[in-house]
Amino acid sequence: MTTATAAPPVLVVRQTYLTWILSKCPKGAKALIDGKPGPSYGGAARGTAVHEFFARYNEWLYKIGRPTDWTQAGTILRDVLTDHPELTAEERDDVADQARRICDTYLMDLEHFYGSEEHLEYDLTLTDGRVVRITGTLDLLLLDSIEGVATIRDCKSNHQLPPDSAIAKDLQLKTYALLVFRNMPEVVAVKGELWFPRYGMLLPRKDEALWTEEDIDAFEAHLRDILKAFLDAPHHEAIPGAHCQYCPLRRLNRCTLWRSYYGTTPPPVVSAEQFQKLGRQIIVLEQRLDVLKAHAKDWVNEHGPAAIGSGEYAEVFDFHKRESEELAASDLLAILENNRCLVGDQPLDDLLSVKKTTKAYKNLRYHQELRSAFDDVMQPKVTTVFGHKKPGADDE
Ligand code: SF4
Predict the structure, then answer these.
(1) In angstroms, what is the span from residue 105 Cα to ligand 1's centroid?
(2) Rg of the chain over all Cα atoms, to the nearest angstrom
(3) Are 213 and 173 in contact (CB under 8 A)?
(4) Is the distance from the beta carbon of residue 21 to the nearest atom of ligand 1 less than 6 Å?
(5) Which residues in the chain come in under a pLDDT of 70?
(6) Are 219 and 174 a contacting pair, CB within 8 Å?
(7) Ligand 1 contacts CB of residue 240 (under 6 A)
(8) Ligand 1 contact via 29 beta carbon (within 6 Å)
(9) Ligand 1 contact via 197 beta carbon (within 6 Å)
(10) CA nearest 138: which of 122, 125, 126, 123?
């Protein structure tokens, strides 16, 4: 679907690259939009294959009119894997696992199914009349035409699960919501969901990521400003981050900032040898991080706060204040004592903790006359903390 426009677009930008402009790196975004070849990385083909399986499985379910049916799943999976000979054996297993999960956990909402792999476009007119075409392909679009509520469900094949609160801020979903609003005038609200077939989990679990026309109008106004600045910029700002690994400019002679991020996002470990390398890297990086932080602290002490990047996504180095409420145990006991008629007996073990590192505690704990009284009530407690230490070394 494409909305009608008066002028031809000066820029056509896919949702992925728009997210680069908005929240990652404008310089990298420019390179991607200009079609500079990006580096190939393992996860890309795997993600595409999982998406393709999901789309073809949806088509099959829609065709037979059933919410779930795995009789064709094997054939669909075989076709998808045949189309992606570049996948390693391990990636093929991963795609097959995720496909199995999809068949086990996915129930198609036939009543509201609108489409899968739904391609939408919107021609956004900037304040000076130039037009930018935004495009996106939605994994799954559901429409409740009575309530006027559309649901966008994006399938994620990656390992990380974001917190619920991140879904409403997800720029990909928000951009899709804009495309839905501008292409489907009957829609009054758009719900965003991320689906992780690897875990059979749909996010958000508790809250709702919901956008109204008003939210999307404000987002569109923001896009207008950002895209105008992007088109007019003589040089685009380079902001390094985890995304550098996907950037066509990640070469020393193309982007000097790439070096600041290189090597910090390795792929998952698949062999004992790789673990040896990874373990050593962790130890060295921890030591290096202490030194880097000490240098950064010295700089901020001398020059004041310093921002990395700009706008709302800037990371500011400073002595940030953390506020929390402090309450002396004796004050809490006094409040409980004075209000016993109101709150009754309270679980003191849950409310008060004993600080075992203080001198006052240690004097009591090792008091000759009290030692056995403490020994009698002490409970051994064992917890595990992931990390590294030398055999026999003290716990921190
Ligand atoms: S390598 Fe990183 S910092 Fe440099 S342009 Fe690419 S994304 Fe931006």
Answers:
(1) 38
(2) 28
(3) no
(4) no
(5) 1-6, 39-43, 252, 258-268, 310-313, 393-396
(6) yes
(7) yes
(8) no
(9) no
(10) 122
